[in-house]
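Supplementary Note 3. Input sequence used for the single-chain structure prediction.
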Amino acid sequence: MRALMAAVLLAGAAVGALPVAAATEVVTPASTQLAALLKAHWAWYLAQNPVQASMLGDASGDGKLGDPSLAAADAAAAQAAAFVKQLDAIDPKGLSEADRLNRLVLRRSLADQVEANKFPQRSILFSNRDGWHTYFAVLPDLVPFFTKADYLSYVERLEAYPAYNAAALRVSRTALAGGQVQPCESMKGFERSISGTIVDSPEKSVFWAPFAKQPTTISDADWSALKTRAATAISGGVMPAYRELLDFYVKDYAPKCRASVGTSALPGGGEYYNYLVRSFTTTNMTADEVHALGLKEVARINAEMDDVVAKSGFKGDRKAYVAMLRTDPKYYAKTPQELMEKVALTAKTIDGWMPKLFGTLPRLPYTIREIPAATAEGTTTAYYNEGSYLTGTPGVYFVNTTHLDQRPLYEIPALTVHEAVPGHHQQISIAQEAPLPDFRRYATFFTAFVEGWGLYSERLGIEMGLYDSPEKNMGRLSYEAWRANRLVVDTGIHAKGWTRQQAVDYMVANTALSQANIEAEVNRYITGPGQALAYKIGELTIRKLRTRAESELGTRFDLRKFHDAVLENGALPMDLLEAHIDSWIAAQKALPLG
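The predicted structure, written as discrete structure tokens, is reproduced below.
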């Protein structure tokens, strides 16, 4: 799930019952204060994130990119701290329950921003999978293209990119000087994500895509002028900036990469990783606790996988069955088109189940696309980019069509329910369309909730009957094991001194993932520590809450209403989600039978 990250990078108390806002609220001095603060915060946020402003149809950010400098990060953290101070001065007793939740969610997000800025790792602006250059390369997919103003904004951003690139390079040189560098092994091939975007003419560039067809809203003269200006910006500014980044990476950065893989090896890295564990899981769990939970989950899932093998009729153990799945050509597409057709059929099958699982469905549709060739080699099997009906942009489920012999067809059901519906597209689009403050609809991203919901959605495939063969069921269990493995491997690497090879070997032994996927995943955990912990922690929380609701409500339990209740408040930290669902359970109990 990367669109929110792209937009942001290009910028720059006791909990009670927490229901959704009522239709009318009593106005109090505290509620007036909060409303003013939310308005001021949102205006500030959009100014910090001009690309996202354009994605939301707000012209205030048009033509601008964010500021990646450390000075801007310090200024933003200072303002975030000032907002926290203002929130703390508001008496929650004078707020409605909905506004108390608004206050808590905003405070949590801002406090996290303030804490993150304290660490020297803030100067690391890329992982093995992406950086400011890959996010900029998808700009044509993010912003609207309807009017002359839309195209002019885009051209102005092309013209602004060299300065943005230069500022980001200054930060990266600061990181290099301070020893905040990524590991050598996990960054192999990263330069291709830069060089793959470099072309010898504007018309061959990914940045030329918006000019493939002239809109009827733009005159011939204006269209010609825009194209000329864009061509000049691409050839004279954007391409030289990409060459400058490539030169920096190959000549300056790569030779100074580090041999160690754990974040704890970096200056201040141990404390930073402890922060990441708390931030990504939205809990107070320690790395040791997460590691132990992962070992327990891996053992449980392995037992379930053994049972699938035993019932499949296969003559051999789990290891032999997995080896068969990894190598038998019948489980793999022969062409990218075949893979995409299988994905499309699965997606439409799932669409037919959605009204049975949810009372509320989003207006925004999603589409499927291949991951761009420039970044596909080093990235994961699939990912989702959010869209916006405000700007006519669909959600996009991106599928990796490289290395087809490493993309098994039996993984498609689990992959699709996670990335599209009922996973990321359902959750994010529902949040965008909910009656919530703008910051919660468009700018609140608690990874444990978002990715926990995606993993929980994989289990919903059982209820849809998607895993109708031992292979597909093994694919589901392998995906669940994959996320449980993350708890072990991520903490192993960054808190327990594991080597890269230890992490790879562990995942080979405990998942059915292909070797290429495992290599890519371990590189991801090494260069992006902590994020991978969120999936299992969030999923286990949602599963626990569903079990609680089923137990306490009995025949009153309605799965569609439960799912709507989980999603109706947008992304929440785990403790606030628990409080909300407890409140929902109590409300359901109070309803008359009938």
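The chain has 26 helices and three strands. The first helix runs from residue 3 to 9.
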